[in-house]
Backbone:
C-alpha cells in the first residue's frame, strides 16, 4: 500500500486529470486543491504525532 495520505492521493489524481485536459484548472479546482493541501498537512502532523507516541511508549515499556 502507498504511504501517501488520501488527500495527497486525491491531489495527484486531480493534477493528472488536469494534465490530460480532463479538467480545467479554474477557481473552483484551485480552492479544492488548497483545501486538500491543508488537509494533507493536518494528516501528516497527526501521523508524526502517532509515530512519536509509539516511540515514547516503546521506551517506557518494561523489557
Residues:
Amino acid at each position: 500500500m502507498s504511504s501517501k495520505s488520501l488527500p495527497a492521493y486525491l491531489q495527484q489524481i486531480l493534477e493528472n486529470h488536469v494534465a490530460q485536459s480532463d479538467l480545467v484548472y479554474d477557481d473552483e479546482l484551485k480552492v479544492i486543491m488548497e483545501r486538500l493541501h491543508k488537509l494533507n498537512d493536518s494528516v501528516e502532523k497527526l501521523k508524526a504525532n502517532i509515530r512519536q507516541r509509539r516511540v515514547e511508549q516503546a521506551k517506557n515499556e518494561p523489557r
Notes: The chain has one domain: 6-60. Residues 12 and 56 are 33 Å apart (CA to CA).
